[in-house]
Amino acid sequence: MDRIGMSRRELLAAGAGMSLAAASGQALAQEAIGQPLLGNPALPEAPGQRLGWAIVGLGTFAVGQVIPGFADARLSRLTAFVSGNPAKAQDLGARYGVERIYDYANFDSIAEDPAIDCVYIVLPVGLHAEYTIRALKAGKHVLCEKPMASSAREAQAMVDAARAADRQLGIAYRVHFEPNNREVLRRITAGELGTMRYISADHGFSANPDYPPHKWRLEKLLGGGGSLYDIGVYGLNTSLMMLPGDRVVGVTAHYATPENDPRFVEVEGAVDFRLRMASGINVQGSSSYCTSPYVSRQRYFGSEASIEMQPATTYDDNRILLEGGGLPPREFRAGNPMSQFAAQVDGFSAAARAGEPHRTPGGMGLRDMRLIEAIYASADTDGAMVALNVEV
Ligand code: NDP
Fold first, then answer.
1. Closest atom of ligand 1 to CA, residue 213
2. Which protein residues touch ligand 1 with a CB less than 6 Å away?
3. Which of 123, 233, 290, 291 has the greatest number of beta carbons closer than 10 A?
């Protein structure tokens, strides 16, 4: 079995004796970080040298993906948990060797804790701005989950707070560290699809109001907005990732929420949007809380070839289907998607240490919040064009 087909456990086991796997894993990490590792590049940094991370909010994503992802990190280590549930935090602390446990009331005292360099906010969206700003004021660098905040106004306040504190602020757009999406970016920017013409992005799932992590997503105060905030933002951000240097000049959108669906009283259930780019490319997106099965699909059409990714933005199973260019269709993977979690935190640690912006900085999150607000503004007026001038 090749390394792409391996589980994390198999990869770790194989790494002990397989120099090829180790070398390619290291190349991935270096590529993600964007700069050479310090010292001997064959070795991860000693634990005491790595930046210390506090995880804020021990929910589904933090426990299932973020925390286990640190096992493969080379520049980052877990040093603290922040939670409203002390028993859960203690249990996880025992499992991961994390002794420092904070709650939301004593959170500001992390300022006195030298073992915490970076804070990762994995809370419901409505709490992102408050905890990001508190962490920045405590003198810590902050990586905040997507979407950045409840509004562009909050997002701007977060960017301002990072500047005032002279600390790095990143938004956890993990797709920018995912090897298959990096490969698609490389191919598009190298001109392998010819001239880019059109992108389509479809992202959705069926929201279950009885499942606690979905419940807050359906409430305006904690969710910030609806499907576009939570799942549609992947299509928006990933599409723009593939168009570096372009500019959004206009947005049109229509809601597609089913009528009288009791789930969607406070937030929209579905919205279709179209971004008009300065290059002439259109990006067409659909975002939904009311479709089954779960969809995460990106399609890139060029004058000579096209790429479909389905799934495109998942944790562990992204694929590339390349068609055109005079060759038979080819489906392949460029790397193990699971590497994105360690690559993202190591990328942020490297940026924080160097005093340089993260690959997906606060400004990118602010840009996306402005676009989300423009999409809602167009949908509120039944598809009227909202003119913009937003650099990608
Ligand atoms: P969960 O509901 O599973 O977890 C959220 C956690 O936040 C809770 O477990 C709780 O942790 C804490 N919390 C504090 N206050 C509240 C409150 N008032 N209501 C609910 N929870 C609260 O959500 P997810 O893990 O699915 O999402 C968390 C964040 O991660 C969101 O920003 C989401 O957008 C993002 N996310 C990102 C993904 C990605 O792929 N990048 C994927 C999934 C989510 P505790 O008990 O420890 O206090």
1. 2
2. 57-62, 83-85, 88, 122-125, 127, 145-146, 172, 174, 212-213, 216, 222, 230
3. 233
